[in-house]
Amino acid sequence: MSRVYRTPITALRKRELQEHNKDTPHTPMDEWLFKYVNSFLEVNECTEFLDYGCGTSYLKKYLPQYKVHEYDPGYEEKSADPSPCSTVLCLNVLQYCEEKIYKQTLWHLQNVVKERGVICVGLGNKDGYLMKENSTFWTQWLSQFFTIHGKQLVTNALSAEPDYLLLEVSPIDFTVIPLAPFSLR
What is the pLDDT of residues 101-122, one digit of tens each? Predict the structure, then answer.
């Protein structure tokens, strides 16, 4: 059984930020991301998905037409190890991982994506981010765990630098090629 090992400080910090922002209206960037996700789900004819790092259940509230499985180790009631799912959404999660555990988190994420996923990572030196990395860093690391089918850098109208890296991914195909039979004679 796979398990993400988050330190209590990481989970607590993320939960504090989410609780602080839970009544805040969505930003235009959030609205854009929700529309993008809904379009992705429609195009792929999804009826359900795993919200990996679901926090305060924004996606479940915004997309009630889908069956949403939720996982977030920062919330005891959502911390059970998730079953692999055909479609996994991991939105604004990875930048909150402590540096010493993000590889374990990526490994865990890789093990729950059966067919396809969307990963959105916050970029740069923003308050609250524990991983303050650029798109090159994240693309290199994520390409070790997933096949990347689409990549977008998303910039807020007020920013000069990209705010988010948005990737459409699938599991890396480690198909084993059978060897021809051989004899030791």
Answer: 888 999 999 999 999 999 999 8
Domains of the chain, start order: 8-22+45-170 (3.40.50.150)
Calpha distance 27→31 (Å, rounded): 6
pLDDT score for 9 = 41
Check if the beta carbon of residue 2 is closer than 8 Å to that of residue 98.
no
Would residue 12 be called left, alpha or beta, if left means φ above 0 and alpha means ψ between -120 and 50 degrees? alpha
Q: How far apart are CA 118 and CA 166, in angstroms?
A: 7
The model's pLDDT over 11-48, given as tens digits with 9 standing for 90+, comes to: 555 555 556 555 554 566 677 888 899 999 999 999 99
